[in-house]
Amino acid sequence: LQETQSQLRESDTRLQDTQAQLQLTQQDSQQQIQELNQQVQECNQNVQQVQENNHRLHETVQRKEDTIREQQAQIRHLRSQIDTSHWVVSNEEVEMTQEIVGKGAWAEVKVAIFRGTRVAGKCLHEVIINDHYLYLFSREVSKYLYSSERQVIRNNYITGKLG
Q1: pLDDT digits (tens, 9 = 90+) for 22-39
Q2: Which residues contact 142 (CB under 8 A, 6 or more apart)?
Q3: pTM of the model
């Protein structure tokens, strides 16, 4: 009987040790779970912040795209408003010669005959003839026509006599 009681005490002691270890392990596990829950919560907050930033950026991009579309519409409108009727002449009225007066990055100025008068004629290079460069050319000519040096420019650049 004493031996059985001794065995029971030993078993009881081992059981208490095991229970103590289990309790420590459970406490450690609960602490780890709390830490993981806190990390998950921080990650969720970060995700929310990223989503909010993404939404703000998307709104900013939308506003900028709207602004670009509005500006493009304004540009198209302004381009359609350029009045070229006062300086554009028919090809039949101008006879271009091969005599080059000057060269630039996007055009040559040649001697031309306009209604019997020698004038300077600007010829755009073939490789750049497109809507954009025609617009720039129209804007340039219109700017010179309305400048304070209108007569000088007309006489020396657009429709003036040469020589």
Answers
A1: 999 999 999 999 999 999
A2: 82, 83, 84, 87
A3: 0.40
